[in-house]
C-alpha cells in the first residue's frame, strides 16, 4: 500500500509540474510543437528555417490602410523573432550585401506566402521581414496596387522614389507592375510606426555569393590581337542573370565596383595575367582594351533588353551582346585588377568610355584635376582606334567625368 501511494504521489507531482510548465512558458512550447521547417536553395547554399506557425498570417481582405494595419498587428504579435534572428545571422556570417539580403528575404517570403497565390500577402511579408531586420521600409497603396519602398541614400535612376523628411525612399517592387502612371493613379503611404526600422538600404555590391563549383559552366571566349588568336575557357554562373534581373541603374561608382565571383575570377584573371607577362604596361592595357572590344558582339540595350540596362562585368562575360557602358565597366575592372592604374569614366551624349593615367600620356590627353589621362575606348567602332584615340564623331561633343578612380585614395 505504501509503495503504491508513493508511486501515485510521484505521478501527481509530475502532472502538476507539466501543468505548471505549460502555464509559465507557453511561447517556448508553442514554438517547439507548432513550427514548420522550410528548406530552399539560395545561390548554391541550402537554407533551413524553422518558422513558428503563428507567423503564417492570412490576408484575404481588400487592400486598404485598415487591412494592412490589421495584418501588421497580427503578425507583430506572432513568434517571428527567431526567424528574423536566423536571417540576420546568415546575413552576417556570409557577409551579404543589402541587395543579396533582400534576395534572401524574397525567397523566404515566397516559402511563407507564394507570390503567385497572393501577391499582396507576399509583398507584406517581404516588407515585414525587411523592417524587422532593421531597415526603414514603407508601403503605399493606390488602385489596388501595393508598392514597397525602402530608404536609400544611393543614387538610383530608373525606378520610382519619393522623399519624406529629407529622406529618399525607392520602390523595390515596381518591376512587378511594369509601368504606373503616378499622375492618374495616386498612391498613399500606409503609416505604421516600427521603431527598430531605421537603417538605410544600400545597392552597393562588393561581393558575389559563393556559388557551388558544379553550378558553373564554361564559355569559350576568343579574340584576335596582333594576328594572334587568344582563347579562354571562362567559368560562368547562369544565376548571375537572376541576381541582377531587377537590379536598378546605380551611379557609376557603385556600378564599376561590382566584382566577379571567385570561380569566374580564377578562370579569367590568371590567364590574362599570363598573356601579359611579356608586355609592358601600355601594351598590356592595349591588349585588355582589344579583348573587351572584340571578344563580345555589340548591341545596344534597347535592342537587347528593350530598356536601358547596365551589365556588371560578369554579366558582360555571360551574355553574347553588350554595349558601351557594359564594356567600360568590364575594361575598368580588368585594368584595376591587373594594373591598378588611376582612371576616369567619361560620359558623352551617346557614349561611355574610359581614360587611363599612364606615366606619359598617349595621344591628345584628357586633363582632369591637373592630371593627364589617355582615352582607351573598349567599344568597337567603324575603325580600330588605338590608345589615345576616339571616334571624331564622339570626341567633338562635350563630356562629363562620371567616376574617378585613384588607387591612392580609396
Pick out its properties.
five-stranded antiparallel beta sheet; single chain; C8orf32 fold; alpha+beta; 410 residues; 16 strands
Short description:
The chain has 14 helices and 16 strands. It has 410 residues and is of the alpha+beta class.
Largest sheet: 5 strands, antiparallel
CATH level 3 topology of the largest domain: C8orf32 fold
State the low-pLDDT regions, or none.
1-7, 13-32
Total E-strand runs: 16
Derived structural class:
alpha+beta
Number of helices, where a helix is a run of at least 4 consecutive DSSP H or I residues:
14
Quaternary structure classification: single chain
The succession of helices and strands, N to C, reads HHEEHHHHEEEEEEEHHHHEHHEHEEEEHE
Q: Based on the structure given, which CATH architecture of the largest domain is correct?
A: Roll
Q: Any idea of the CATH class of the largest domain? A: Alpha Beta
Q: Cα distance, first to last residue?
A: 85 Å
Number of domains: 2
Descriptive notes:
The protein is an alpha+beta fold and 410 residues long. It folds into 2 domains: 18-190, no CATH class; 213-405, C8orf32 fold, CATH 3.10.620. Helix content is 38%, strand content 22%. The protein has helices spanning 2-24, 26-33, 65-76, 81-93, 98-112, 119-132, 239-243, 252-256, 262-276, 281-294, 301-305, 313-318, 324-338, 392-395; strands at residues 35-42, 45-52, 137-142, 145-151, 161-164, 167-171, 188-190, 217-225, 228-236, 297-298, 321-322, 343-348, 351-356, 366-368, 371-376, 400-405. The strands form 5 sheets. It has a 5-stranded antiparallel beta sheet. A 5-stranded antiparallel beta sheet has the order 14-15-13-12-16, covered by helices on one side. The protein has a two-stranded antiparallel sheet with strand order 1-2. Helix 5 (98-112) packs across helix 6 (119-132) and helix 10 (281-294) runs antiparallel to helix 13 (324-338). The longest helix is centred in the first third of the chain and has 23 residues, at 2-24. It is elongated and about 70 Å long.
Amino acid at each position: 500500500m505504501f509503495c503504491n501511494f508513493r508511486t501515485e504521489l510521484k505521478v501527481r507531482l509530475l502532472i502538476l509540474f507539466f501543468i505548471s510548465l505549460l502555464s509559465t512558458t507557453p511561447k517556448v512550447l508553442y514554438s517547439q510543437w507548432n513550427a514548420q521547417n522550410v528548406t530552399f536553395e539560395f545561390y548554391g547554399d541550402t537554407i533551413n528555417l524553422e518558422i513558428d506557425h503563428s507567423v503564417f498570417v492570412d490576408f484575404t481582405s481588400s487592400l486598404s490602410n485598415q487591412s494592412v494595419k490589421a495584418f501588421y498587428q497580427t503578425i507583430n504579435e506572432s513568434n517571428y523573432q527567431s526567424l528574423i534572428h536566423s536571417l540576420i545571422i546568415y546575413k552576417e556570417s556570409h557577409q551579404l550585401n543589402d541587395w543579396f539580403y533582400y534576395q534572401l528575404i524574397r525567397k523566404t517570403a515566397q516559402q511563407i506566402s507564394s507570390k503567385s497565390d497572393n501577391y499582396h500577402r507576399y509583398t507584406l511579408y517581404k516588407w515585414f521581414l525587411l523592417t524587422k531586420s532593421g531597415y526603414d521600409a514603407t508601403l503605399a497603396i493606390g488602385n489596388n496596387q501595393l508598392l514597397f519602398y525602402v530608404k536609400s541614400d544611393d543614387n538610383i535612376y530608373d525606378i520610382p522614389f519619393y522623399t519624406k523628411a529629407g529622406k529618399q525612399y525607392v520602390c523595390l517592387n515596381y518591376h512587378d507592375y511594369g509601368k504606373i502612371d503616378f499622375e492618374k493613379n495616386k498612391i498613399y503611404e500606409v503609416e505604421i510606426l516600427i521603431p527598430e526600422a531605421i537603417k538605410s538600404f544600400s545597392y552597393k555590391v562588393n561581393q558575389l555569393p559563393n556559388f557551388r563549383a558544379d553550378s558553373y559552366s564554361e564559355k569559350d571566349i576568343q579574340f584576335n590581337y596582333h594576328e594572334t588568336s587568344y582563347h579562354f575557357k571562362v567559368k560562368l554562373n547562369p544565376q548571375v542573370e537572376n541576381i541582377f534581373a531587377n537590379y536598378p541603374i546605380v551611379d557609376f561608382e557603385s556600378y564599376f565596383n561590382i566584382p566577379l565571383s571567385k570561380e569566374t575570377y580564377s578562370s579569367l584573371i590568371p590567364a590574362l595575367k599570363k598573356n601579359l607577362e611579356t608586355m609592358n604596361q601600355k601594351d598590356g592595357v592595349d591588349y585588355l582594351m582589344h579583348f573587351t572590344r572584340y571578344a563580345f558582339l555589340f548591341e545596344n540595350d534597347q535592342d537587347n533588353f528593350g530598356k536601358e540596362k547596365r551589365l556588371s562585368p560578369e554579366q558582360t562575360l555571360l551574355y553574347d551582346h553588350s554595349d558601351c557602358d557594359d564594356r567600360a565597366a568590364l575594361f575598368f575592372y580588368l585594368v584595376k585588377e591587373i594594373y591598378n592604374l588611376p582612371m576616369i569614366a567619361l560620359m558623352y551624349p551617346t557614349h561611355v568610355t574610359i581614360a587611363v593615367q599612364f606615366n606619359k600620356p598617349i595621344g591628345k590627353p584628357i586633363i582632369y584635376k591637373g592630371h593627364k589621362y589617355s582615352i582607351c575606348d573598349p567599344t568597337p567602332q567603324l575603325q580600330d582606334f588605338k590608345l589615345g584615340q576616339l571616334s571624331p564623331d564622339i570626341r567633338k561633343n562635350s563630356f562629363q567625368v562620371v567616376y574617378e578612380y585613384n588607387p591612392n585614395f580609396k
